[in-house]
Amino acid sequence: MAGRKLALKAIDWVAFGEIIPQNQKAIVNALKSWNETLTSRLATLPEKPPAIDWAYYKANVAKVSLIDDFGNKFNVLKVPVPEDKYSALVDAEEKEDVKSCAEFLSLSKTRIEQYEKELEKMRNIIPFDQMTIEDLNEVFPETKLDMKKYPYWFHKPIENL
Q1: How far apart are the first and last CA of the chain?
Q2: CA dist., res. 152 & res. 143, Å (int)
Q3: Which residues of 101-140 are buried (b: 16+ CB within 10 A; e: fewer)?
Q4: What is the DSSP string of 47-114?
Q5: Alpha carbon 100 to chain centroid distance?
Q6: In b/e form, how buried is each residue of 68-95, taking b as 16+ CB within 10 angstroms?
């Protein structure tokens, strides 16, 4: 029964194949074939296991009391299906990841717009060999000399400043 629940969760191999690096394709193909092998084995299993023929064992085993004891213990035995503790945590983490990815995507789009503006600015500037110092300072303000930050010039003596 638990195996049937697991079989319901299918993997989107096309989407998975698009996000993995090229050098890991062989590993993913091995994983996919192993998954298909296990899925096919699970599909061949019956919904309920076959019943044990206790009469056959009573007829062929010398100590019938052992078979009765095993039969009683087997019928009393109940294997609990483990409870699913982690699906809710995984779903919550997935929602958080989707939210952080959406935030990253919006920030990336604003950065792309900013970079496109800078690229358009770079495409429209005067060629460097035709630029004057004033043109350079206008296009790249960080190249303008700051007299307050650097008051001393190497080409003039300090007394003449």
Answers
A1: 91
A2: 17
A3: eeeeeeeeeeeeeeeeeeeeeeeeeeeeeeeeeeeeeeee
A4: SSPPPP-HHHHHHH-S-HHHHHHHHHHHHH--PPPPP--SHHHHHHHHHHHHHHHHHHHHHHHHHHHH
A5: 13
A6: eeeeeeeeeeeeeeeeeeeeeeeeeeee
Does residue 92 contact residue 101 with C-beta atoms inside 8 Å? no
* C-alpha torsion angle, residues 28, 29, 32, 33 (rounded to 10): -150
8 A C-beta contact, residue 15 and residue 28: no
**Single-letter amino acid code for the residue at 94:** E
- pTM for this predicted structure: 0.45
Q: What is the pLDDT of residues 112-159, one digit of tens each?
A: 999 999 999 889 989 989 989 888 888 888 888 777 777 666 666 556
Q: What is the pLDDT of residues 58-110, one digit of tens each?
A: 899 888 899 899 999 998 998 888 888 999 999 999 999 999 999 999 999 99
